[in-house]
Amino acid sequence: MDTGSTGERSSLPLHVVSPLIPSTSLSQLCGRQVLLKLDNAQPSGSFKIRGIGHFIRKNIEKGYDHVVTSSGGNAGMAAAYASRRLGVPATVVIPESTPHLMISRLKEEQADVIVHGHVWNDAHEKAQELAQKDKCCLVHPFDHPDIWEGHSTLVTEILEQSFEKPAAIVVSVGGGGLLCGILKGLHEHGVADIPVIAMETEGAHALSAALQAGKPVSIGDITSIAKTLGALSVTQGVFDLMPGIQVLSNVITDKQAVVACMKFADEHHMLVEPACGAALAAGYCGIVQEFISKDVICNDGPVVFVVCGGNIVTLDLLMTWKNQLCILTT
């Protein structure tokens, strides 16, 4: 565990300003400049460190000295990384559906790992129980204003790095934490006219179900291979922050998400998991192009894809998904 005084640890940077780079291949596909916000370059492997790191830091400053969280992967990695950097122990509760490679990665970050339940909601109930101990800080993977505040730094960076105002921002959606951060950032910077394309996979489509119902509802079970999108319902924060911003919800198949991961690996030489592939599929499957042709995306600025990252991916896993979904390569 990292050493140093409390003051020194509390000032340690947890996330980095990630690159915003152009994508020639996706720009050609979309007929519009595409910029990639590479949060897969974060030290914890995903965007999650922005919000979860911010939340944990604030709670340590309040006197908490043990972090407890539940996660299908990326949130747990962010919590474990932030806790190690800030010098406090972390307990991460993960559902049985989490791939085994995550256990070793979490332990590398010195986290105590507990496997409990079939889906994230089961793991979170166990985490709530464990967090009853004195000075334990319960870190929700996505549902807290401090987490959204941390994620909103993505918008700050995009606006600072882009030479033009973006025409749209494309994100993957699980429980809605990243989406809330983007919405919060757009409001705070006075650019609520930038539409957000919100991408999900079938079987992890909690946002789509919520928008149809007009409120957060449970989808019953997670059947998508995009396990890190695996929340049964989205946070109410999405509905609180959405007014005034056009959120364009789209649901794709697991196959489309995995194909996007494969094409992204071929063209950009980076591995991302299907949860991240959901956002990339908006370009590879023609969704962005359709919005442009229908003037839903109406200004001439670049389309920014948030490459949210992912720890649950290896070459072997990508090939396994390819074979499971009978994906043919040309």
Automatic annotation (TrEMBL):
Cofactor names: pyridoxal 5'-phosphate
The UniProt record lists the EC number as 4.3.1.17
Q: Where in the cell is it found?
A: Cytoplasm
Cited InterPro entries: Ser/Thr_Dehydratase (IPR050147), Ser/Thr_deHydtase_PyrdxlP-BS (IPR000634), TrpB-like_PALP (IPR001926), TrpB-like_PALP_sf (IPR036052)
Broadest EC class assigned to this enzyme: lyase
One GO cellular-component annotation of the UniProt record comes to: cytoplasm
Q: Report the residue ranges that make up the Tryptophan synthase beta chain-like PALP domain in this protein.
A: 17-309
Query: What is its pathway?
Result: Carbohydrate biosynthesis; gluconeogenesis
Statement: the UniProt record of this protein carries the keyword Transport: no
GO BP of this protein: gluconeogenesis; isoleucine biosynthetic process; L-serine catabolic process; L-threonine catabolic process
Listed GO MF terms: L-serine ammonia-lyase activity; pyridoxal phosphate binding; threonine deaminase activity
Write the record's keywords in alphabetical order, separated by commas.
Cytoplasm, Gluconeogenesis, Lyase, Pyridoxal phosphate
What is catalyzed by this enzyme?
Answer: L-serine = pyruvate + NH4(+)
Instruction: Return the similarity comment.
Output: Belongs to the serine/threonine dehydratase family.
* Name of this protein: L-serine ammonia-lyase
Q: Give the source species.
A: Cherax quadricarinatus (Australian red claw crayfish)
